[in-house]
Amino acid sequence: MNNPTIQAILSRRSVRKYLTKPIPEEMIQIIVKSGIYAPSAKNKQNWHFTVITEPQMIEKVNELTLLGMEKLGIEKEEGYHVFYHAPLVIVLSSVIEGYSGLNAGCAIENMAIAAKSLGIDSCIIGQTRYMYHQANHIDINRMLKIPEGYEHDCSICFGYIDGEEPEVKPRKQDLVDYIR
Ligand SMILES: Cc1cc2nc3c(=O)[nH]c(=O)nc-3n(C[C@H](O)[C@H](O)[C@H](O)COP(=O)(O)O)c2cc1C
Known about the structure:
- The protein has a single domain, classed as NADH Oxidase (3-Layer(aba) Sandwich), CATH 3.40.109.10.
- The chain is about 35% helix and about 15% strand.
- The protein has five helices and four strands, in the order ααβαβαβαβ.
- It has helices spanning about 5-10, 25-35, 55-70, 100-115, 135-145, and strands spanning about 45-50, 90-95, 120-125, 150-160.
- A four-stranded antiparallel beta sheet has the order 1-2-4-3.
- It is globular, with a radius of gyration of 17 Å.
- The model has no long low-confidence stretch (mean pLDDT about 95).
- The structure holds flavin mononucleotide.
């Protein structure tokens, strides 16, 4: 089907190799707006977005996450970068209540699809939760400008792909039943 929205959804892949090329500010704003325009239960909009393009801060979050993973005994190969050196990272946080996790999921996927439609790839990063296993909770939240009462949910990194799009990962069969 030649529909650009369906194309963006079906062609999105988690990309783990990026060019250093920065994402133009206008595109960043469209991506963030797409997240903000996601639906949320009871229209709570109980999320917060920390948009990071400052390379030092991306490195800092990477380092803290790797240290947290090390502390938990999660092994990663030498040189592993949590954000795969992507030039844009958005850290999502929520007021933990009701459907906040689901709301955050809607926001994050909206951003991934919006980015894809603009020719920008992404990878959702759950691993950033590990940084809290290594450093002080309050210090991290302050560093990431996460408001009081909000908890970090997950992150997403964006960038222009370096190399070929990864092959589609096969989807499990028999997970859909129809009643008709
Ligand atoms: C909640 C969530 C957390 C994820 N965390 C990570 C992560 O920390 N690192 C990573 O490389 N990929 C992560 N992924 C990406 C998944 O591995 C990926 O979506 C899955 O393998 C399917 O591949 P696809 O996105 O290319 O279709 C995460 C995806 C989701 C939805």
